Amino acid sequence: xxxxxxxxxxxxxxxxxxxxxxxxxxxxxxxxxxxxxxxxxxxxxxxxxxxxxxxxxxxxxxxxxxxxxxxxxxxxxxxxxxxxxxxxxxxxxxxxxxxxxxxxxxxxxxxxxxxxxxxxxxxxxxxxxxxxxxxxxxxxxxxxxxxxxxxxxxxxxxxxxxxxxxxxxxxxxxxxxxxxxxxxxxxxxxxxxxxxxxxxxxxxxxxxxxxxxxxxxxxxxxxxxxxxxxxxxxxxxxxxxxxxxxxxxxxxxxxxxxxxxxxxxxxxxxxxxxxxxxxxxxxxxxxxxxxxxxxxxxxxxxxxxxxxxxxxxxxxxxxxxxxxxxxxxxxxxxxxxxxxxxxxxxxxxxxxxxxxxxxxxxxxxxxxxxxxxxxxxxxxxxxxxxxxxxxxxxxxxxxxxxxxxxxxxxxxxxxxxxxxxxxxxxxxxxxxxxxxxxxxxxxxxxxxxxxxxxxxxxxxxxxxxxxxxxxxxxxxxxxxxxxxxxxxxxxxxxxxxxxxxxxxxxxxxxxxxxxxxxxxxxxxxxxxxxxxxxxxxxxxxxxxxxxxxxxxxxxxxxxxxxxxxxxxxxxxxxxxxxxxxxxxxxxxxxxxxxxxxxxxxxxxxxxxxxxxxxxxxxxxxxxxxxxxxxxxxxxxxxxxxxxxxxxxxxxxxxxxxxxxxxxxxxxxxxxxxxxxxxxxxxxxxxxxxxxxxxxxxxxxxxxxxxxxxxxxxxxxxxxxxxxxxxxxxxxxxxxxxxxxxxxxxxx
Amino acid sequence: xxxxxxxxxxxxxxxxxxxxxxxxxxxxxxxxxxxxxxxxxxxxxxxxxxxxxxxxxxxxxxxxxxxxxxxxxxxxxxxxxxxxxxxxxxxxxxxxxxxxxxxxxxxxxxxxxxxxxxxxxxxxxxxxxxxxxxxxxxxxxxxxxxxxxxxxxxxxxxxxx
Lengths: 747, 161
Hints:
The complex is a heterodimer.
Chain A: H1 21-25, E1 41-47, E2 53-59, H2 61-65, E3 69-74, H3 90-93, E4 100-101, E5 107-113, H4 116-125, E6 127-132, H5 139-143, E7 157-158, E8 161-162, E9 169-177, H6 180-186, E10 189-197, E11 209-214, E12 220-224, H7 229-240, E13 247-251, H8 267-277, E14 281-284, H9 287-293, E15 300-308, E16 314-326, H10 332-339, E17 349-357, H11 371-389, H12 393-400, H13 419-427, H14 430-433, E18 441-463, E19 469-473, H15 481-493, E20 500-504, H16 521-548, E21 555-558, E22 561-564, E23 570-572, H17 573-583, E24 588-612, E25 619-629, H18 636-655, H19 672-675, E26 686-691, H20 712-725, H21 736-743
Parallel strand pairs in A: 1-14, 12-13, 16-17, 19-20, 25-26
Antiparallel strand pairs in A: 1-5, 2-4, 2-6, 3-5, 7-8, 9-17, 10-15, 11-12, 11-14, 15-16, 18-19, 18-24, 21-22, 22-23, 24-25
Helix pairs in contact in A: 10-11, 11-20, 12-13, 15-16, 18-20
Chain B: E1 4-10, E2 13-19, H1 25-32, E3 51-54, E4 57-60, E5 73-75, H2 88-95, H3 105-118, H4 124-130, H5 142-156
Parallel strand pairs in B: 1-5
Antiparallel strand pairs in B: 1-2, 3-4, 3-5
Helix pairs in contact in B: 2-5
C-alpha cells in the first residue's frame, strides 16, 4: 500500500507549528471545564465511602428541600422502561450505582443546583443506608474460593464454557502455541519469577468535565473533554435509552487522556440532570474523584517462566497472568496474552490469563493497555537469562526478535516490523556504547510492543475559494493530530501545510470516528485523509478536463501539479482549485475507513542508567534513551514528544506510582501530592532515536507511536536496579521503602 | 454568605469583581471574570496549572483567597502576550513542541516568565528546580525545559533596534 517514495516527501518529516498552538499558549483554548452556557446549573456527585456495600436505601428528600437544589438523581433514574434496578447493566451501574457500591468513590447520586456550593451541600444531605460487606482488593485473593463475591451472577468464561458457580474471575483465556513440553526439554537455562504491579492512574492534568442541555424536543447536546465523542454518544444513548440521533456530543479540547477519558462518567449524568431540570448542567470532577471514581489501569500478578538453549534461543515460555479489572468485567488480561510474547519468536508457549474483579474502580485503558506489566515480567526473565548465559542482553534479544513472517500477537504472521532494527540501533547508540562506572549504578534495557488499534475514521475535505483546503475530522486532538493529519493531506494533494486548515467537529458534523487512542489517529485517520485527498484530485481532474477540453486520461497529477501529458497546460493544485471552485459547484470529498482491529505493530526499546542510594533506597535516573520504530515520523518533534512522555510515565509507574489502599479499601493517596507523578526534578532529558521502518498497511508508512514508549520503562529500570544492587525486583513500584526492604542484606 | 467587592488590577486593567469570603482567586478568575486560561488540575496547589503572578510573586491561584488580591497587581496567562505579539516563552513553547494536550501550558509559561525575569541566566538545573511545582503528564518535561532554555537565550539578546 505504500504509494510514495519516501525521499520525495515534501511535508511529511518537517516540523511545522501546530494549528491549535497559539490558542494553547495564550490560554484561549476551551477545555472541558471552560464551557460556559447561560443559566447553567452546577452538579456534584455523591460517592460511596465504602469499597463494598449493599445500598439498602437512598433518601434524597432533605437534599431536594435545600433551597437552590433543582434535581437529584440516582441509579433508579437509569432504569429503562420494563426493567428493574436489579437489571441495571454494568455500563449504567458504573455511572450511578444500582444495588451495590463496588468500590470507594463509586457514584451513588448526583445533584444539580444553582451553584457548586449548594450542590455540594445537598450531596451531604442525601441519606444512604449501606450494609457494609467484606472487601477484596488483591487479584490473587479475589480468585480464591471463599473470597467476597462482587457479582452473584458472574460465571467465569473459560475455554470449556461458563463456570457453574459465582466467581470473581470474569474470564480465563488460554493461548497455546507449539509444544510446551518439548520446549522445556530443549531448554538448558530457565528463568522464572512471580511479578506484581500496582494499580496506577493515567494522571492527566485536566479533571473530567461535562456540560449538557436537554431541549423539550428531546435534542441533547453534551460538551465533554472525551477521547471519543462518537463512543461517548453511543454509550450515553445506551445508558439513557435515548436515540443516538437525538444526541450530539461536542468534544472540547482535552487536557490529557491516555485511555482514561474513553469511558463515560459525567456525560449521561449531566444529560439526565438537564432533562430533569430543563436547564444546562455542568459537572467538573475534583482531583480525588478522578483518582477514586474514574478508570485507572489494572494491578497485576504474573507468574512466568522462560527457557532458552545454551546458545540463547528461546524455546519455551509459560505464564499465568492475572489482571485486576476493578469492579466490573474487562479484557485486560486477554490483551496481555497478545502482547507478552509479541516482540519475540518463541516456538512453544502456554499462557493462562485471568480477568478478575476486585473492589477497586472499574479499570480503563492506559497507554498500551496490559503490555507494560507483561513486559515487566518477560523482559526481566530475559535479563536474567542473559546473565546466566553470559550473553549481552541486547544481542540475546536480537537473536530472538520477531520479524516479518514471525507469528504475531493475533496469530497471524507479522508484516514488515522493526524490532530487529531498533535493537541494532540500541547496540550502536552512544548511550549503550558509553561506559557506566561507579558504585550502586546499573544499566538496564527492555523492549516493548503495541499494535495500531486502527478501527474506523471519517474525514471531510472541502476546497475554499482561495485554493486552500479545510480538513474536517472528528478525533479530539490530544497531542498534535490536527498537525499530523493536515500534513498527510498536504502531502497527498501537493500543497503547503499552511494551506490545509484542520478542524475537529462534533458528532453531527462528520462521519463516524472511533476514539483518539490506541495509537490509531495518525495511522487510521491518516488513511482516511489520504483517501479523501485522492478523491479530491480525481474530482478536480474531471472538472479540469472539461475546462481544458481534453480527455480525463490526458491529465496527470504529480508533485502538486496538474498537467496535460503533452505539457501544454499545467497548474498547481492551488491555481486549479481557485479556477475550478470559482466557477463550479463546491469541491468536497470524504474519506471513511475501517482500518481493521489490532493492525500492524510498533516496537520500542529503552536504555536506562540508574543509581541506587543505599541509605535512602531512592533510585535516580541518570540517563535515558528511547528508541522506537515509528514507521514514518510525520512530525518528528511530536513523535519524539510521544517517546519522551511515554518514557516518563513509565518511570513514574516503575518508581513511585501506586493506588495505596487501607484494609477497608480506601485509597489513601488520592491527591497529586501523595500519588506523586514524576516532576521536572525526577527525570533527566530523554534522548530519542527514531527508526523508520515503513508500515506496509499505511500509504505513507505511518505506524502509531503513542503507546509503545510506556511499555519498556518498568522492566528497563528493574533490570538496571538489579544490575546496580544484585537484587531482582519483582514488585512495583520500586519505591525507596521497597528498595531498602529488598536490598538490606546485600547493599 | 455575603459577597464582597474586590478591586484589583489584572493584566494592567483595573478590575472589580464579587467574591464569597471563602472563594479562591482561581474561581474568581474563571467564574466571575471569564479568564479561563488559568486551569484547575487539583485545587490544592499540587499541579501549578492555575499559576498567576501576584505582585510579582508566582502563586497557585487556587490557594489564594480572592479577598487577598484587594489592591494587588495580577498577571494571568491572558496578559502574557502583548496584543498579537506572543511572549518569547510562548513562541518558544510552540517552536520546541513543548506542549501536547496544552492544559498545563499556561501555568508553565507563567511560572517560567517569573523565573526568567528574576534570573535571566537560569540553567537547566535551576529551571528544573523552579518548575518542579508544575506537573505535565504528556511531555516528560524534556521539551519544556528546552523551550525555557531557548526563551531565556532569546530574552537575553538586546532588543533589536
